[in-house]
Design a protein that fits this description.
Layout (H helix, E strand, L loop, with lengths): L1 H36 L8 H34 L3 H39 L4
Amino acid sequence: MKDKLEELRAQQESRKYLLKVLEDENICFKLKLARILSTDFDRRELGRLEYFQSRFLKMDEQIALLRHEISEQQGVLASVQTTTGLKEATVSELMMERRFTTVQQHFDMLDADFRHYLRQSFPLV
């Protein structure tokens, strides 16, 4: 039981690190967007830039929710005393892994879309 708990805790730490990476990259996207908005850009691009800004903010929300869930899961892992508790924590961990994978996939699509858009519309940025 102790080994499984340690494995679950290690997964949580790894997930926290990866979540921080996603958060940092999302910040970089917002900085690029701000840099574009501070220049004399083609105003016809404003709608598309607002669209990406909205997606970045939604990603912030997804990251914040995952961070909260990770924190709750750490509390659950800290209080596991029985085999039944370990099974419940394992099931919870699997559900979190699915949510994390979904957020990672959404981030990867956002990353690809934004980079493609920048290459097409702002090749010098």
